[in-house]
């Protein structure tokens, strides 16, 4: 970083932000790389830490950097091209882009099927379901929070298996479902609520893309009802016709 020259016409925090942005643009800071700490940035620019925090907050609002609690601030990765097709697998998509896919179980519970979920999964209203909340990451960057519902009668150990594998594809394989397809996909946009914003490391007011989908087996029988919330600044959906 270069030391800033005095200039009363530009706020100090803006000059710090512009300096860091130039470093990102010219490759001095690579995608996914951790930035120097606040103290180091402040010393390099001869400003106080409050000025640095405001500069980093402005860059985060623009989606250029991401603060991870207890770890530091990282340069955001470029948007991942995420194809929407009849066979959509998070691990395959992320891996094909040169990233390491990761899955983490956030919560799991059992609940009775609402009328809407019962209709989607072709079950009786009130039928027992397993609900799984998972976080999917590409390298260190959280990409989406997903809620998945499946029949507790057909997949009784889904929670335990997901905790072990971190993948619904591997869970289904344990029950003999070696392949499945996407029967329907609906996409809407929204502002992340407080819970999703925290899990996705998004600032308050940042957008998410909501994908509601139904997966079925080879005979067309419903398997999974899914509601995923993607960080809009980290993915670009690509609709493919087959």
UniProtKB/TrEMBL annotation:
<keyword id="KW-0804">Transcription</keyword>
<dbReference type="InterPro" id="IPR050679">
    <property type="entry name" value="Bact_HTH_transcr_reg"/>
</dbReference>
<dbReference type="Pfam" id="PF00392">
    <property type="entry name" value="GntR"/>
</dbReference>
<dbReference type="Pfam" id="PF07702">
    <property type="entry name" value="UTRA"/>
</dbReference>
<feature type="domain" description="HTH gntR-type">
    <location>
        <begin position="10"/>
        <end position="78"/>
    </location>
</feature>
<dbReference type="GO" id="GO:0003677">
    <property type="term" value="F:DNA binding"/>
</dbReference>
<dbReference type="InterPro" id="IPR028978">
    <property type="entry name" value="Chorismate_lyase_/UTRA_dom_sf"/>
</dbReference>
<keyword id="KW-0805">Transcription regulation</keyword>
<dbReference type="InterPro" id="IPR000524">
    <property type="entry name" value="Tscrpt_reg_HTH_GntR"/>
</dbReference>
<protein>
    <submittedName>
        <fullName>Transcriptional regulator, GntR family</fullName>
    </submittedName>
</protein>
<dbReference type="GO" id="GO:0003700">
    <property type="term" value="F:DNA-binding transcription factor activity"/>
</dbReference>
<keyword id="KW-0238">DNA-binding</keyword>
<dbReference type="InterPro" id="IPR036390">
    <property type="entry name" value="WH_DNA-bd_sf"/>
</dbReference>
<dbReference type="InterPro" id="IPR012702">
    <property type="entry name" value="CP_lyase_PhnF"/>
</dbReference>
<dbReference type="InterPro" id="IPR011663">
    <property type="entry name" value="UTRA"/>
</dbReference>
<dbReference type="GO" id="GO:0045892">
    <property type="term" value="P:negative regulation of DNA-templated transcription"/>
</dbReference>
<dbReference type="InterPro" id="IPR036388">
    <property type="entry name" value="WH-like_DNA-bd_sf"/>
</dbReference>
